[in-house]
Amino acid sequence: MTAPVKTPPYRSQLTSARDGFGQLLHAEWTKLRTVPRWGLVLLSAMTLTVLISVLAVSGSSVEGGGPAVTVGPDGTAVRDTMHLVHEELPGDGSVTARVSGLKNLKPSAPDGGRAGASPGVYTRTTAGWTKAGVVVKANTKTGSSYVAVVMTYGHGVRMQWDYTHDLAGSATPPQEDRWLRLVRKDDVLTGYESADGKDWRRVGSVRLAGLTGTVEAGVFTAAAPNTKADRMLGGTRVAQGAGQATAHFDELAVNGGEGGRQQASIGGPGLQTAVPAQDAVPAADLAAGSFDLHGSGDVAPLQANSDITRDTLSGAMIGLIPLSALGVLFITAEFRRGMIRTTLTASPRRGRVLAAKAIVLGGVTFVAGLIATVLCFLIGEPITRRNGHKPPLWPELALTDGPVLRAVIGTAALLAVVSVLALALGALLRRTAAAITLIVVVLVLPQILISGLPLGAAHALMRATPLAGFAIQDTITRYDQASAVCLPEEGCYPQGPWSGFAVLCAYAAVALGLAIWRMRRRDV
Description:
With 524 residues, the chain is α+β, with helices and mostly antiparallel strands. It folds into two domains: 20-63 and 306-521, no CATH class; 70-301, Jelly Rolls (Sandwich). The chain is 39% helix and 24% strand.
């Protein structure tokens, strides 16, 4: 009888090693690097990304370095315009007043029109931050340190300080009376509110080094600008007019105050002007502590309408096109030539094959994208400075700054995820032209549509499509209390950078999962 042939022990081990995931990664890397035209596609993507970015920032200039702006205590560009009634507070003390009848006197659009009176969509997002309340301010110069407890037109009671800080109190509507109080003890200021002037609720406390020595304590009114945005396919027209508001104050008391009660109109860089006659509070009412106070302007951060870092990375939108083509070709070329059968014979576990392709392609495009995005920033940032984008409205930036580093690395990661998404679509459709067209459409078409859609629809599109991934490029600090309109064409995304990037990653993960499922169920 013939003895059975036994497979040597090392044979199964060798087969397992060849089918190991590390070996599979090496095989896919070999395929990618040995096709010359794929290397050219990578190089063209890097070149386009850098070239388009440089051209974009070269064509963007600001006359004279931008408008003159007020600078807050921390160097941030701010708005500081108000009608102030005040008296000196040399030491510990408090300021208390009842606020009622807060009104926006210019609720219509800057051109006098009404919402919906013209084609497009009218949006006014800042009138809700019209405010009136009690304040302790270092002095009457614009940009000086302050703490305030205010009633706002659309956001209830708030405690705000040094322009960039905002703390929510009760959600009291502006039609209701509210007693507000600030108590100063050393350099700590504590804000309170009350519905009846008897039972007080603490809003918050803050310690500010800028509020030492003699300060000014009193009440103020300020009105955020009214903004109108007419949006239609092809462009957006934004008009902004000065807001105007009024509020009634009574039971005003400054405990520890001295020097008599005065009023001032504060506004413009370093500018304090006389109160206009029509807005001046009569002396008798001023002394009695019961009067109407009119105001305009705003007390909040001043946000630039352009993001320098994002501008230097704007070429990524074009650079992703050749990377999308590479992602599609990395799988469809094997289907077209029948090489996929050889690949799957050598490694029958189809999900692992596609996963290996995704890892190799994503890694290579990330490295290429990172080189391109670093060059974009290092070349583009000095150009923006020469073109007038200077502090304080556009702060100094460095590659090592947290938001900048996140945007630069994040953009490279975005390009890598897009290439993986393209790979997945190529595996699903198995047609090069169809897959490339689809990936370009889902990324570029929303970019075109958002400029003409109503803001709500545009923001929904930016949240729900792969375009959301470009939120990773946003480096502007946005404040809820700032008077600004979030326009998509200016790169303002309604979601945070990481949540937007997560949306793109989710699309790629779902597409890759579907592609693996299809490859497992369908014979090649």
